[in-house]
Amino acid sequence: MACLIKGVYIAQIDRQENRREDKQIAPTWWEAFHFKCIKVLEDDVDSSIFGAVFEYMGHQIESPKYVIAIRGTMINSRTAIRDVYMDAKIALNELSHSSRCELALKAVEGMIGSTHHTNVWLAGHSLGASIALQTGRDMAKRGYYLETYLFNPPFLRLPLEKIKCRKIKNGIRFMLVVLHASK
Fold this sequence. Notes:
The chain is α/β, with parallel strands linked by helices. It has six helices and five strands; from the N terminus they run H-H-E-E-E-H-H-E-H-E-H.
């Protein structure tokens, strides 16, 4: 799964560096494991490749038929501003309303339309792990439980251990529970 995600990172670099098809590096990351990239997921704002749908072409019984792999933030690239914007959506708990989540969800829905949901896996790194997690949650609400591999997902929390007053800590915890329950 990690190599498929790495392939998505490299596919974006291939695009940025305008590599011709015969000079692209990305395919080596998935072809070595008998996967074929059948669709790239492109951001609708900056047209960057943030994910891809891979089809397994091998014969191993315990492998998925399809994997939707999603990359994380790329700081030193043309997509950095958009990626950091998406990272901010995580901190603001608004990622689920992003176009990348919508595109990933549509990709999963498309795959489930052609095969049993157990043949579709999700994989993501960092920002991509958050998108894969949100996509998996959305599918679970519909009764489709997808095998999911998350690498270094962002974990945000308030540094409550820095607050010395127990009453303030408990008040913040209570407020967070109420806010979460109201969603």
